[in-house]
Known about the structure:
The protein is α/β, with parallel strands linked by helices. The protein has three domains: 8-35 and 454-490; 40-162, ATPase, nucleotide binding domain (Nucleotidyltransferase, domain 5, 2-Layer Sandwich), CATH 3.30.420; 240-420, Exopolyphosphatase. Domain 2 (Nucleotidyltransferase, domain 5). The chain has helices spanning 8-34, 92-98, 100-109, 126-134, 136-151, 165-179, 240-251, 274-277, 303-311, 343-350, 360-372, 375-381, 387-390, 393-407, 431-439, 455-476, 482-490, and strands spanning 41-49, 54-62, 73-79, 119-124, 156-162, 191-195, 199-204, 218-223, 226-236, 258-261, 269-273, 294-299, 338-342, 418-420, 423-424, 427-428. A six-stranded mixed beta sheet has the order 8-9-7-6-13-14. The chain starts with 7 loop residues before the first helix and ends with a helix. The structure holds cytidine-5'-diphosphate (CDP) and calcium ion. Residues 50, 125, 196, 342 line the site of calcium ion.
Amino acid sequence: MKEKNPWHTPVTIIITVIGVIAIVALVTVAVLQNMPLLQKYKYGIVLDAGSSHTSLYIYEWPAEKDNNTGRVEQKHSCTVDGPGISSYASAPPKAGESLRACMREAEEWVPKKRHHETPLYLGATAGMRLLDMENKVVSDKVFEAVKGALEKSPFSYQGARLLKGQEEGAFGWVTVNYLDDRLKQGLETTGALDLGGASTQISFVSDNYDGSESPSNSVTFRLYGNDYTLYTHSFLCYGKDQAQRIRLAEHTQSGPKIVADPCSHPGYSETKKYSVLYDSPCVSDRKPQGAPETFDHTGTGNFQECQEVVKKVFNFTKCKYSQCSFNGVFQPILQGPFGAFSAYYFVMDFLNLTDTSITLEDVKEKLKLYCATPWSQIVQQHPKTKPKYLAEYCFSGTYILTLLIDGYNFTSVSYSDIRFIKKIKGSDAGWTLGYMLNLTNMIPAEAPDTPPLPYAGYVSIVTIIAVLIFILFLVSVRPLWPHCSKQQQIV
Ligand SMILES: Nc1ccn([C@@H]2O[C@H](COP(=O)(O)OP(=O)(O)O)[C@@H](O)[C@H]2O)c(=O)n1
Ligand SMILES: [Ca+2]
């Protein structure tokens, strides 16, 4: 008669069932507890009130990772119809109204339940800096109008203010390096070159610059545990639209009726008003006395002569520092790769010159041919581009080369370190993202604590260990298994 082991059936079954349930529960709890929360997103909105136009940017990031890195992305952008807010000096309320369509668009892009917690910022740059210098009362009225419009939105309005040139340069640098993932990884940084309509910024880190020479050009950051001393400078009036005015002011000092301009195409001819040309603090003190009301702006299309005229916009004579860029402004030795965005990109893209593997000599040759092309041909080749913009690419291309080479001291070798960029990983290069990251404290000073294992590795290890424990357990209770009991009996 078989002797029945009183332990083996009910006990092993119960132990096994409890063991399985315990392991499943352990793994489930561990996995659920540490699982990234369902992907919920947060949003931030920044309006870039530039001299020529206003753009609205919506940024998005996973809700549980406010403090983490490389995750903020541009979700949408909207270009405000009409000119920049500084152009509404004679009718400030219209500056506020102009923002309405883009604000509505933003309401559609940001999920309704996030509206009230979405920070909304407006930063104004050189157009408003000039208006502020010209007429503070009017610039305050324009700010009041845009504030009124933004306060009415369902978002969490955080203020509309004039950015300092230094902030504009530094936040452009933060944007470029954040998007390139250079800050978190502590890699060599990329310099930032921003060309606007009314001002231009250059920002870079140089081993030769510790901030002691010309401290007003230094901005220090501690980001992800790394210290940076950034050199930055903003040249007011050296955006391409104001530089164009300064250059034409050179031509019109004697108040002529006809201006033969080497930076305009042969056959170009347009009647322009002296009062409009000189309506800017960048040139208003040079307005010729007794000039006629208008002048005929005609083109001769000569690149070399255009270069000569453009060079006169810069003052290279005085420098009280160890070295300067221009106008007596300190600049350390250029270092590292550079990203050139905004109008640098728009102009070079139009001229098919964004590829910097094209040598500087070839770039000049191409520009020479372009400037010499008759205006009628240019208009015919670009039927969709507004003639107002089309008329200026020869000047703008020449200005960009002169600013880079003669102004900032790029050489035919270091020119190839420049990348002309519009976007990095889907987000526009510009100061807005860096501005928002700073104001929302989204870049920590110290490197964030990261879990020692990635999530998938953690789940795998918990599962493997649990299964191993279970197998060990089964092996340890093996003598209680039915067939083992039998074998013991036979022996
Ligand atoms: N599609 C575009 C958009 C802007 N732009 C130019 O890019 C510049 C942008 O300057 P901005 O409005 O940001 O002016 P700032 O306040 O930065 O000086 C202006 O000169 C525009 O004419 C362009 O050339 N093509
Ligand atoms: Ca700008």
